Amino acid sequence: MADRTQEGRMAVLRIVACDARDYYDILGLDVAAERSAIIKAYQRLSLLVHPDKCKEPGAEDAMQRLNNSKEILTDSNRRKIYDIGRANGKGSRPTPASTMPTYNRRTTKRKRNESPEPMPNTEPE
What we know:
The structure is a single chain. The protein is mainly α. The protein contains five helices and no strands. The protein has helices at residues 2-17, 23-27, 35-49, 59-73, 76-87. Helix 1 (2-17) crosses helix 4 (59-73) and helix 3 packs antiparallel against helix 4 (59-73). The radius of gyration is 22 Å and the shape is elongated.
């Protein structure tokens, strides 16, 4: 148990010391890492630093950084954007999916030639 606690403490300290925008460093991976390696690194580290298991100060921040890193690096489109910004030195940070807007899809389908219902006139006369 003491080894696990010490390992969690060291992981939290390392993650918090990393630049919050360097997702590869947070996960301890090389830029050429494959998606499966990213997921494995995330799973291993999240078991160590999860705030429910690790009571070390900064565990919540470390877990949030891990989540953001995994979210960006496992999405191929967002990873490309991140890698391009990183190569240009701009530190581009794609927006985490949790803060991206969501759009509700229409639940009923219109017939092909059917036009949408006109909006009622709500303007004051």
